[in-house]
């Protein structure tokens, strides 16, 4: 067993750490042993564990767990980048969320992480031309997690969505790498136009709770949007915006606001 674990750690350190944490968690809380074995320890890879977890969460009387699991397995096998994005997302949650103390937690308990991984399956289906199935995934993610992400939206890796309730991300939205956002964020349109109508969020952006970013506007890399703001115009890189409507109130305050998660507006910042 030790040799096997050493080999896994060499080829997939994220999964190896999750396995170690899962075994420790079973010892700490035996009543969760069944859940942890079924969700983690019975699986040979993170991708297989995610397939199990996603299908269990999204299954309903309309679509069986088995069918959804086969779809997830197909997506992970066809596009290894989906699994690599999941690993980056786990690391992002662990690094940025002070309530996350183990890599195991997002996989088992955090709906923001689980919703993003479900979206990634729907996004893959969308680009396979399986639009109705991708809409089904979107519907179930909204019903189960309270998060509505259109499957055509483009979302990068290293995403952390804290608390995650009432997130809305529209069809033509783009979210870069290493973005952090809190609950009740909307990346929405401003009317009934059917073309490119949603925001383009750069890399390393921090979006505070309740912020609304509306229209086909660009939010520059490493910028910061204060909680409760309504952003209707483009934001240059490395700036902080706040207010309704939002205006530039200073610099972002650091090189990587999405990493520091500092949402305090300091004088002159």
Architecture overview:
The protein has ten helices and 15 strands. With 269 residues, it is α/β, with parallel strands linked by helices. Strands 3-6-9-12-14-15 form a six-stranded mixed β-sheet. Strand 14 and strand 15 form a beta hairpin. Helix 1 packs across helix 2, helix 3 packs across helix 4 and helix 6 packs antiparallel against helix 8. It is globular. The N and C termini lie far apart (52 Å). The relative contact order is 0.08. The model has no long low-confidence stretch (mean pLDDT 94). This is Serine acetyltransferase. Belongs to the transferase hexapeptide repeat family. Keywords: Acyltransferase, Amino-acid biosynthesis, Repeat, Transferase. It is an enzyme of class 2 (transferase). Its EC number is 2.3.1.30.
Question: Summarize this, please?
Answer:
The protein has 10 helices and 15 strands. The chain is of the alpha/beta class and 269 residues long. Belongs to the transferase hexapeptide repeat family.
Structural class: alpha/beta
Q: Note poorly predicted spans.
A: none
Q: Which of globular, elongated, flat, extended, rod-shaped describes the shape?
A: globular
This entry's quaternary arrangement is single chain
Mean pLDDT: 94
The largest pleated sheet is described as: 6 strands, mixed
Helical segment tally?
A: 10
Q: Please tell me how large the radius of gyration is.
A: 19 Å
What order do the helices and strands follow? Answer: HHHHHHHHHEEEEEEEEEEEEEEEH
Roughly what percent helix?
40-55%
Number-wise, the strands total 15
Terminal CA distance reads 52 Å
For the largest sheet, list the strands in their spatial order: 3-6-9-12-14-15
| Strand composition percent | 5-15%
């Amino acid at each position: 067993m030790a040799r096997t674990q050493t080999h896994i750690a060499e080829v997939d350190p994220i999964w190896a750490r999750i396995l170690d944490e899962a075994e420790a968690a079973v010892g700490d809380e035996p009543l969760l042993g069944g859940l942890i074995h079924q969700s983690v320890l019975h699986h040979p890879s993170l991708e297989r564990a995610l397939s199990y977890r996603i299908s269990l969460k999204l299954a309903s009387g309309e679509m069986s767990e088995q069918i959804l699991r086969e779809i997830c397995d197909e997506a992970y096998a066809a596009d290894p980048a989906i699994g690599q994005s999941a690993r980056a997302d786990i690391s992002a949650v662990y690094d940025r969320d002070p309530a996350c103390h183990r890599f195991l937690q997002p996989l088992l308990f955090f709906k923001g992480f689980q919703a993003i991984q479900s979206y990634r399956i729907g996004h893959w289906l969308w680009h396979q031309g399986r639009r109705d199935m991708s809409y089904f995934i979107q519907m179930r993610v909204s019903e189960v997690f309270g998060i509505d992400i259109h499957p055509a939206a483009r979302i990068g890796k290293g995403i952390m969505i804290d608390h995650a309730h009432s997130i809305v991300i529209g069809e033509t939205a783009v979210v870069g790498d290493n973005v952090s956002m809190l609950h009740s964020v909307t990346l929405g349109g401003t009317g009934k136009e059917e073309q490119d109508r949603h925001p383009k969020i750069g890399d390393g952006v921090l979006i505070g709770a309740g912020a609304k970013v509306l229209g086909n506007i660009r939010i520059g890399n490493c910028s910061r949007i204060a909680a409760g703001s309504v952003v209707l115009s483009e934001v240059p890189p490395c700036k902080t915006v706040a207010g309704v409507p939002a205006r530039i109130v200073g610099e972002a305050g650091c090189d990587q606001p999405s990493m520091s998660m500092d949402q305090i507006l300091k004088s002159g910042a």
